[in-house]
UniProtKB/TrEMBL annotation:
This is Molybdopterin molybdenumtransferase. CDD domains: MoeA_like. InterPro entries: MoaB/Mog-like_dom_sf, MoaB/Mog_dom, MoeA-like. It comes from Diplocloster agilis. GO terms for molecular function: metal ion binding; molybdopterin molybdotransferase activity.
Length: 341
């Protein structure tokens, strides 16, 4: 940086904040570090006692914080996102639609490990609403080496670190299993819970059915609903290892590819997920979904609604953070539940 007369500073970039103090009225910066001085700014600067200013001196191989911020933003910004203007080396990313936020944590860590720049995001694999803030980026110094920003681009790779998958409109079917419900010994309390959770998304429930604990009937009902156009099958009940619980076998017998039977999440350990013909998810929900406020279903449903394919490894990493503490006042998703590695 260099020191120049204030009258000669038009077009120059400030290297420090300029503070105005009016006793009993204000003490605040009238111009921030990084501000480009205009002709109209000169009287204001002189009025606060600044006859000389430190300004940025352009050097080969160095980038101003706002120039570097543009590069950092490009590294992060995926589809369905809006951005703020660069200010003081900062740019924020905003959701342009409702959807599922995806974050590549390994590449995020690689960029943040370079130093002198930061990317701070929401946790990935959780739903967001249009207008929600997704991430903030910041260049720490006023100027940064151009080669460091090239290193950031290399660490980030070709694709943006963030992505926002919009939720799809889906046709869903609900199968409630259990002889006690089928024979009318107890009331079906599962279906209302599932309907309430599906109502948070653009979902058309094309049918629901109560079935006995006979795996052949359950398998056929699943296939029948798929034939009618169901794009999401939710099976409730009969998910434990008791001899009478036949839902896992029924799901397997459809010919669907089983991702996992069991997940390191409490409540929700007996959860099952399979894909029929590689595209239609079939979810087997354990009994806890009926009575616990938050379960494994709350963690996987947003991903299913965004057509975000779930793999076995995606469930395995939920072990860390997979324990719901059943807080007296639930703040999910603004808590640690489901926020794994």
């Amino acid at each position: 940086m260099k020191l120049i007369r204030t009258e000669d500073a038009v077009g120059q970039v400030l290297c420090h904040d300029i503070t105005q103090i009016i006793p009993g009225v204000t003490k605040d910066a009238v111009f921030r570090k990084g501000h480009v001085v205009t002709k109209e700014d000169i009287p204001v600067l002189l009025s606060v006692g600044k006859e000389h200013l430190y300004v940025w001196e352009k050097q080969e191989g160095m980038l101003h914080e706002n120039e570097a911020a543009e590069i950092l933003c490009a590294i992060c910004k995926g589809q369905n996102m809006e951005r703020t203007q660069a200010k003081e080396g900062k740019i924020e990313l905003i959701a342009a639609c409702d959807g599922l936020l995806k974050v590549d944590s390994s590449r995020l860590k690689a960029v943040n490990s370079l130093g002198e720049m930061i990317i701070a995001t929401r946790h990935g694999n959780f739903p967001v609403k249009k207008g929600d803030k997704l991430a903030g980026t910041r260049i720490i110094p006023l100027v940064i080496q151009e080669e460091k920003m090239e290193a950031a681009k290399k660490a980030a790779g070709e694709e943006p670190i963030l992505d926002l998958k919009p939720f799809a409109r889906k046709k869903a079917a609900i199968l409630t299993t259990g002889s006690e419900v089928y024979h009318g010994r107890i009331q079906d309390q599962f279906t209302p819970v599932i309907l309430e959770k599906l109502a948070e998304y653009d979902t058309e429930v094309i049918g629901s059915q109560i079935l006995d604990d006979k795996h052949e009937q359950i398998t056929q009902a699943i296939l029948d609903f798929i034939a009618k156009g169901a794009e999401l099958i939710i099976c409730t009940g009969g998910m434990s290892v008791d001899p009478d619980d036949r839902t896992p076998l029924a799901i397997k017998n459809t010919g669907a590819d089983v991702v996992s039977y069991g997940a390191p999440v409490l409540p929700g350990a007996m959860f099952m997920l399979a894909y029929y013909e590689g595209r239609i998810p079939i979810a087997g929900l354990p009994g806890c979904v009926m009575y616990a406020k938050r379960t494994i279903f709350d963690l996987v449903l947003p991903r299913l609604m965004a057509d975000d394919r779930i793999h076995r490894e995606d469930l395995q990493v939920l072990g860390q953070g997979g324990l719901c503490l059943s807080c007296p006042v639930c703040t999910f998703p603004n808590c640690g539940f489901g926020k794994g590695e």
